[in-house]
Amino acid sequence: MNKKVLFLDEPDCTEQALKTFEKIDSCIYTKSHLGISSNEFMECDCVENYSDGVNHSCDENSDCINRLTLIECVNSKCNYCGDNCQNQRFQKHEYSNISIFQTEMKGFGVRANENLEINQFIYEYIGEVIDDDEFHKRMINYDQRGEKHFYFMMLKSGEFIDATEKGNLGRFCNHSCNPNAYVNKWLVGDKLKMGIFAKRPIDKGEEITFDYNVDRYGASPQKCYCGEANCLGFLGGKTQTDAALLLPQIYAQALGVNRSMEKRWIKDNKIDVKAIINVTISNDNINKEFVEQLDVQPCDSGSDITKVMSVLLQLEDNSNIILLAEKLLKRISPLNKEENRELIQQVIKLHGYKCFSRLLPIFIKHNEINLIETVLIILNNLPKTTRNGIINSNLVDRINDIEEKIPELSNICNQLIEKWSSFEMYTQITKNEIKRSSSSLSSSSNLVKNGTSTKFDSRNDKDFRKVRLPPGWEILQENGRPVYYNAKQQTKLHYPPAGITKVFSQNNLDSHSHNYHNHHHHNGNINNKKRLYSHTISDKSENMNGNNNNTNGGVLSEEELKRRKQERIEKERIALERAKTKEIQELKANLQLEHEKKNELERIIAHALQKKPNVSTVTPKSPGTPNITNGSNGSVPTPHNDTVHSNVEKPISTEDEKLIRTWNKFFAMIVPNMLKKYEKENHLKHSTAKNLSRDIVKILTKKEVQHNNNRSPPAEITKDKKLKVYKFVNGYMSKWFLKERRNHN
Known about the structure:
Elements: H1 14-18, E1 22-23, E2 28-29, E3 50-51, E4 54-55, H2 65-68, E5 71-72, H3 89-92, E6 98-102, E7 108-112, E8 121-124, E9 128-131, H4 132-144, E10 152-156, E11 159-162, E12 166-167, E13 174-175, E14 181-188, E15 191-198, E16 209-210, E17 222-223, E18 234-235, H5 237-243, H6 249-255, H7 259-269, H8 273-277, H9 288-292, H10 302-314, H11 321-332, H12 341-349, H13 352-365, H14 369-381, H15 388-392, H16 395-405, H17 410-421, H18 431-443, E19 447-449, E20 452-454, E21 467-468, E22 473-478, E23 481-486, E24 491-493, E25 501-502, H19 506-523, E26 532-533, H20 539-549, H21 558-609, H22 655-668, H23 671-681, H24 686-707, H25 719-744
């Protein structure tokens, strides 16, 4: 390892350097569409953590999913972590303490004025963001002007940051063949930003450098003065092409590639020198030949998953996306939800559903059926969770689109839809909701301490979500109260499960868990048969509560522990019996309610279709209208009578009746055909399918008439209308099959 060279005694030339360019505080976009990322903004699941008036959430030591996937939190868009969290370094210009000094051979350079930690944010690379055409024009212009230094950085395919005339101090970072810093792209709002970060610990007085890979931007060969032992002697040209990194650092890490692998590949390929010279490096600084020959290995750590998901979330739809996506997906597709439970949970946590939802349309566009199937297999392997993430990411629409366009994948698409239909939907808790929930508990009565009435202090308001949960656990909301839910285990707790990591102090957690348990013990409610009621907590939590309530040195006797354990078990047994009884009662009530709703719907439709009582007073029919009656009183049959399908037109007495008939006919042309697949795939009886079709047609008709009682159906069935009906039928049938399975069980 080379000895670090320090430049502590060199004069500070910052003021002098600032006179050589126009200083700007943020990038200037020469065209409005430049710099915009195709990725939508994503929220993290961190929570507010105020101390001394500062929000410490999403800091370097947190497991903030946005920070891990190179996304900055934004005050107006994050509902959970709170305003001004620690993951806003680009927005707040939280730059490291640096200065400019005069180097011996390289002009100005950047020096650290303090010790920098590994991965510390040093500076944003700021300049004018230009497109590819402008980039080439400026390259020629600067060359003709005799410019010695070029300040171009690629932001994304076909877009560059030019800091030649406008920028900040980050532009003075020099190149090194053995750099101590690296550049990374971050999503800030809807814009991509380029940041300079410490690659290793940097000592005060060290020059800050990163690898330019200048030849990738078309520069002529220049002598390199970095002075490193591995220095190649030149920047740009064929020599640098041989030695330049074959991949940007973030891609290399995600693919499991290290520098020695790159060097070995370059060395092996030098057997054919002509082939090396003709290696084409794409616009994204990716050597395709190198990536194509990579034999990637499955992820074996949470860190690997984080790196892979970070790149998958940033992939743009360009010439390299298919190659990179194929290699990256191979690193997570072999993971098994039983053997690699924690790793595959990490995929979900790091915006997995949104990531795959974004990639699938791109794969469909390029007709990459194998990649689509790989994503579907990964989705099918993901463990059970709530349906929130699936719905929010529009994955159901993506799967329906695939099923329609790629029939050979319809089986796995149906498996996914059926699997997801059994997942539960919960209301997530925002920071405002949790404050209201906590306030309602505390403000309902005054706190009494030492015989004195004390009003509730909002500063003591605890946040139930301030715990980092073990894999598989989520914090959700039920009846306005937070619960800890594990979909796979089908277990619900009213305070944190064992294995949590606290964000706030231990005493606060114990006190809050204990108080909330006592309150909810009397107010718990079970709304779904699939959820199990449980008040089980770890012995550790029991001991912690005991420590808080024991005044004798904080130690409980073995006898007291046994007594408390027996008491807890008995309470759980009673609570479980009550919950089961209540579940049965609610299930019966729900079935009765559904039956009443169905009868009411039939009554409304029958009433609408009923003729006027006095047939003799009906307005004389127009020529050509058949005078038909059914039964002795001439009443029109209800939809449940087979005669409703008669070819003879029934007399129309009101506009409402006519509208209902028209909509019934409209939906009757669509719905029965959609139910045919259930007859084939699910062995549904034809008579049952016929009755279900009739019920669905009634419901759809009622919706249309209630929405607009003057609007007739369109003359032709549009694709959009057919898709909406298809989604409704799928949802209706999923619920019907679920109810049938419950009744059967």
